[in-house]
Amino acid sequence: MLNTPAWAPAAKGRAHGAAGFAILAVAALAFLTGCSGGTGQSVSTAVKDSSSAVATARIALRQDMEGKLTRAAASTTLDDELKEVHTSRSTVLKLSPASQEDRDLQKQALDVLDQCAAGFATARAALATSDGGSPSLSDGDKALAGAQDALKQLEGKVGDK
Amino acid sequence: MTSASAPLPKAPRAGGRILDAQLHLMDRQVLDHDGVPVTTVDDLEVSGPALDVNIEPGSPAPVLTALLTGSVLGTRIFGGRPPSSRLIRIPWKDVAEVGVVVKLGVKGEPLDASWVERWVRDKIIARIPGGRHDPR
Amino acid sequence: MKRLLGVALGILTAIGGFVDIGDLVTNAVVGSRFGLSLVWVVLVGVVGIILFANMSGRVAAVSGRATFEVIRERLGPRAGLANLAASFLINLMTVTAEIGGVALALQLASSVYYLLWIPVAAVAVWLVIWRVRFSIMENVTGLLGLTLVIFAVAVFLLKPDWGSLAGQVLAPSVPQQETAWSYSYYAIALFGAAMTPYEVFFFSSGAVEEKWGVKDLAQSRINVLVGFPLGGLLSISIAICAALVLLPAGISVTSLSQVILPVAEGAGKLGLAFVLVGIVAATFGAALETTLSSGYTLAQFFGWSWGKFRRPAEAARFHLSMIVCLLVGIAVLATGVDPVLVTEYSVVFSAIALPLTYLPILIVANDPQYMHEHVNGRVVNVLGMVYLVIILVASIAAIPLMIVTGAGS
């Protein structure tokens, strides 16, 4: 016996009206959620993302030195992670800190992120020059390691708050 | 359901199959004589008295005149009715068989209902190299 | 012998075609942030997709009709249109993500910027859809996608502590640096990545394309029952690789380059070559499938002539709609949006759309008018109802979790 369920279209129509509205609400609310959270929170997120980026870059450089990674893949990895650091930096830059403490934190974070970017510049230059040129791959790794330490210190400071 | 006080008169015997328009015809795929899809049945055109007109006793029963397709889908879902001259019809006399799909007895290509397909084919697809290439 | 080869080909193609950019990215993200504590979701997802792929293949083989044709007939035009709108939009998002994935993988191989690869990838997808026969297309991309088995090989080469791995899988817990909210959010994302909605449309339309009949049901059942679990194991090995190399370094995956680092770590440049070929093949194959699915859903709802077995001139609107989809995909990617971000959203929205795509299949697979004596058995129906509940829960929880976790950040 053929039986078209009569309730289905009406119910689905209503459900879809609601779903459409919900999806519009998501965009607004997710945006707001992303905006909220004070300076400390934003700096902490930026530090986490940049640490991840620097760690990735160090692994890529090490693998390139060990002959496990092609130049193309290593340089693409560095480009991707540098983009990540830039994004974090512009997020921190756009903060409007309320207190002097927050302003100091923002300045420190920007300094550390600049150090990261400089480390990346060294590493990318090292990848671009063929073997023997300067800077060498180990120079690049050292620069990134320094940036990683600075990030860890900043993380500790933000974590203490 | 109202309960009858007296038994209802028997329905007149009808020859052939009895179809439910909503269940068996609406939203069914229409295939042409060679099995090529033409369209889906978006609506039905039924002859007979117009709306808002009293039905005279003894007037003939409404007859299914055509399958409709095209913009009637939009008006069927959202309301309204396109003018009669804008309806894209597949005359009922072209229908050969009604089963899981509705099969026509004619080729689909020259039909009114295929005009969009013909247009897209001629203006776009046939112009791209390999458009008429048989993939098998 | 020929039959055996045919069976093997079917299984291998199913394995190689299982992974797409959604699986790659989501499994890597989950492995790098949650270790192996979400592997159970992949297993649940694999059982689910086996169940529904089987049903949709059976519907197509027995009734000769593909899914969306039947959705409109059974549920009416309003529900069908709502279903079409949602499925089509999410499909479009997935097409965009897949083409982005092809471009990113080609960038990793060549160092040429990915934006330059996007039109190349999209045109290549279109050319294959335009000219190449369905079975050849499926077999080639499926077999090449098998090179992704390098992820499993890399797991062994990385010499993990199997005991602790097993412990993480069997006794899942939320890691310290993550919250229960993000855990649940990524569980839903992983579920949506495993149970991709387009699979249903593609599988059933593919059955019609290849003119399956009742006698092909056994073959399809074997493909699905053997191929999909092995494909699921591939997905899990992507997560394990990320958990072994990226998690200890405190790296959370945000780009495709991070996904392949563990393979390079374990298997060197040779492994890298395999994984890049595999990613290009798998995402290219998935781009083909999702683009075709967009065409199938539109054509089947509106009753257009469709199918790769027809001349393009005989299925003009079908091909035109796919060209438009690819152009939209190129346009979206040309705005510079991160394809990995598009992927992460597409899997969550896929999870939200799952009830829409699976409920009609369940209804139709039980309809004796289409299925004759091949209607669902009792076991399949019970499993189907259980999964419907799981799917509904995931779908309803997805958006609130997205808000609470800020889309998983």
Write out key terms for the chains shown:
heterotrimer; B: 136 residues; alpha+beta; SH3 type barrels; 4-stranded mixed sheet; 3-stranded antiparallel sheet; 21% strand; elongated; C: 409 residues; mainly alpha; Hydantoin permease; 16 helices; 80% helix; globular
Structure, explained:
The complex is a heterotrimer of chains A (161), B (136) and C (409). By secondary structure, chain A is mainly alpha-helical. Chain A has two domains: 30 residues; 123 residues, Four Helix Bundle (Hemerythrin (Met), subunit A), CATH 1.20.120. Chain A is built from five helices and no strands. Chain A is globular. By secondary structure, chain B is of the alpha+beta class. Chain B has a four-stranded mixed beta sheet, with no helix packed on it. A three-stranded antiparallel beta sheet of chain B has the order 3-4-5. The termini of chain B are far apart. Chain C is mostly helical and 409 residues long. Chain C has one domain: Orthogonal Bundle (Hydantoin permease). Helices cover 80% and strands 0% of the residues of chain C. Chain C is built from 16 helices and no strands. In chain C, helix 1 crosses helix 6, helix 10 packs across helix 12 and helix 12 packs antiparallel against helix 13. Chain C is globular, with a radius of gyration of 20 Å. Chains B and C meet through strand 2, helix 2 and helix 3 of B and helix 4, helix 12 and helix 13 of C.
The CATH architecture category of the largest domain in chain A equals: Up-down Bundle
Which CATH class of the largest domain in chain A applies here? Mainly Alpha
As for the number of domains of chain A, it is 2
Overall outline of chain A: globular
Question: What is the percentage of strand-forming residues of chain C?
Answer: under 5%
CATH topology group of the largest domain in chain A: Four Helix Bundle (Hemerythrin (Met), subunit A)
Per CATH, what is the topology of chain C? Hydantoin permease
